[in-house]
Amino acid sequence: MFRPKLPTMPQPTGQITPPAVVIEPTSITPGTPAPPSAPVIPASAPVPSRPTVQLTPGTALALVGGGTAVVLVVGAVLVSMLLAVAVTAASVAICAVVLRSLLASDAKRR
Predict the structure, then answer these.
(1) CA–CA dist 75, 82 (Å, integer)
(2) Model-level pTM greater than 0.90?
(3) Fewer CB within 10 A of the end CB, N or C, for the chain?
(4) How many CA atoms within 13 Å lie on the side-chain side of 85?
């Protein structure tokens, strides 16, 4: 009654052969390596410059606003975590005082 009933696997009906794997040998022929050539840079070619970042007043305002939003969100999260720790500590302290009071009054009665 308490033993699990395991399903039986059906037996194969025909002859099962593994798939044929054909291995073909390959020959490795050593090649002659080409000598590395240094890139040739003409003297009159202009040097590609990096793209410059231009801060317009609108993008600067957007960056300041985004940074302010990030600071406010992170600050709210940290303050809420601190508040949760403080509430937990206060409740544990109240429980400790109540238990101490109960144990002290029980000891006085005996």
Answers:
(1) 10
(2) no
(3) N
(4) 6
Torsion of CA 73, 79, 84, 88, to 10 degrees: 170
Q: How many residues does the chain have?
A: 110
Tell me if residue 109 falls in helix, strand or coil.
Answer: helix
Residue 74's pLDDT band (boundaries 50, 70, 90)?
A: very high
Angle, CA 20 vertex, CA 14 and CA 26 arms, to 5°: 180
pLDDT per residue over 12-43, tens digit each? 666 666 667 777 777 777 777 766 666 666 66
Q: What is the DSSP letter of 75?
A: H
Q: Which has the higher per-residue pLDDT, 67 or 3? A: 67
Q: Measure the CA–CA gap between 77 and 69, rounded to whole angstroms.
A: 12
Both tokens of 39, joined, read 């890139």
